[in-house]
Write a structure and sequence with these properties.
The chain is mainly alpha-helical. The protein has 15 helices and no strands.
Length: about 375
């Protein structure tokens, strides 16, 4: 994108960039879910996502510094932002080709004893990534017929739609405080930093308690209060405080919802497909977010805040309660033996292939 000469070239390059990066977030989370036990996955996904949050917070400062290269090599400053940041991405991507292994049974950086230990841990957790599955379309149909796919999509759209909207109004609020340029960039860092720390805390706590749904419900209340403050007050200082609450209601829920979804879908390919549906649907809501904060609504952005308030309240908060209750009901049925008829007459290998449909597979609440 730093080498284009017209708008058409920029849009074409941006399209290919989106095509290349679309699978990164779901892919990394899916990859981590194939290596760690369900109670170990949350904090690792939280660290990964909080790194993205911190990168976003300091990205503006980095871009401001690189923009000072305006005129170097006959290129404008914005072009150097794309060139230098793009080069770093390409170099890391090239190195990762030799560092990333699909599944534990193929990891050449582990010796045979270590590979067996990793596989044994996954089997104890009833994970199919301990066995090398072959892709079948049946896994895609199984995901489409699973109600958890759709409740996961509802919950994730509640936090992801809000996430896309979040960064759109922060500059306006900081501008209302009377700060510009570098000082304004610095003031945008604290909300992201606090959200990043809380994301890791939630990931750690949810791993220990195995109560991901309750953590989603709890942090969503922060988001509801934050957006209620944004809707109710025009005072820039109150709004800046509300930004912290909004960030704390959105960012931890992103990582926690992904882990919650992955924890409750068993079968390597079914899990990957389900994560694709959930995250893909959430990303589509970015289209909504980019169109609700209109220029004519400055500086309060009441329509935009109102839409996001509904997203957080109805989809994130309400969807988390719905999924939590449904999973709890299903766990009760399994523990009472009401699903044991699913495995009658099946061999041990056939039961293993049932994945999360196994009666002894207890969902993470």
């Amino acid at each position: 994108m730093g080498l284009v000469h017209n708008y058409s070239g920029l849009m074409a390059a941006r399209w290919f960039l989106g095509l290349a990066e679309a699978g990164l977030f779901p892919g990394v989370n899916y990859y981590l879910s194939c290596w760690y036990k369900r109670r170990e996955f949350g904090v690792r996904a939280a660290i990964f996502f909080s790194a993205a949050a911190l990168a976003g917070s300091f990205g503006g400062l980095l871009a401001a510094a690189i923009a000072n290269m305006d005129g170097v090599g006959g290129k404008p400053g914005w072009a150097w932002i794309f060139i230098l940041e793009g080069l770093a991405t390409v170099l890391i991507g090239a190195v990762s080709f030799w560092m990333v292994h699909d599944f534990p049974d193929e990891a050449t950086f582990l010796n045979e004893v270590d590979r067996q230990r990793v596989i044994r841990r996954l089997k104890e957790d009833k994970q199919s990534s301990a066995e090398h599955e072959m892709f079948k379309m049946d896994y895609a149909w199984a995901s489409l017929k699973d109600w958890k796919t759709y409740t996961g999509m509802i919950v994730y759209m509640g936090c992801d739609g809000a996430l896309y909207a979040f960064s759109l109004f922060i500059p306006s609020i900081i501008s209302g405080l009377g700060y510009k340029s570098t000082r304004a960039q610095l003031l945008s860092v604290p909300p992201y930093a606090v959200a990043a720390v809380l994301t890791i805390v939630v990931g750690f706590s949810a791993d220990r308690t195995k109560q991901r749904g309750l953590h989603n419900i709890a942090v969503s209340i922060f988001g509801i209060i934050g957006y209620a403050m944004l809707l109710g007050s025009g005072n820039p200082h109150v709004q800046y405080g509300a930004v912290f609450l909004a960030a704390c209601g959105i960012y931890p829920a992103i990582a926690n919802t992904i882990v919650w979804t992955a924890n409750n879908v068993e079968g390597v390919y079914k899990r990957g497909i389900t994560l694709g549906f959930v995250i893909g649907w959430g990303n589509i809501n970015g289209v909504v977010s980019s169109n609700i904060y209109r220029g004519q609504d400055k500086p309060r952005y009441l329509p935009g805040h109102g839409v996001v308030f509904v997203y957080v309240t109805l989809f994130l908060f309400g969807g988390s309660i719905l999924q939590y209750l449904l999973l709890r009901m299903e766990n009760r049925k399994r523990m009472n033996g009401e699903r044991n008829h699913w495995i009658e007459g099946k061999s041990e290998a056939e039961i293993e292939k049932l994945g999360d449909k196994r009666p002894d597979f207890i969902y993470t609440l």
